[in-house]
Amino acid sequence: MIHARAYIINITLCLGVLLVASCGKQHTAEQTVKNFVAENMKEGVETKRIGFGDLGTTRHISDSLVAEMRKKGDELYKSGIKYGNVPAGEVYYLRMKYLHEGDTLQNTFYLDSELKEVVAFK
Q1: Is the whole-model pTM more than 0.85?
Q2: Strands, E assignment, the chain
């Protein structure tokens, strides 16, 4: 009985640590995206952030796809944006919803493996 109780406590602690670690990554990614948007949104564009989706990862980002997203950009953002380098392997992504002139809009931001730089967005 004592071993079962210790096992349950250990599992609970491990899950708690994982939850805190994942929340930390989410927060870091949100801050990186907020900073990117503040720095690269065109002057005079008024938006109100609604919120963020869950942080995810993907391996389906090729150099050509990144180049296309960077070239295309978005009409609300400045041109000539400086992006981070695309990491090898997995790339994180985070969706942000916001209001602009009564419309609900969404962008997906792709971040480096350290969640410090946006490498592309659509």
Answers
A1: no
A2: 48-52, 56-58, 91-100, 103-111, 118-121
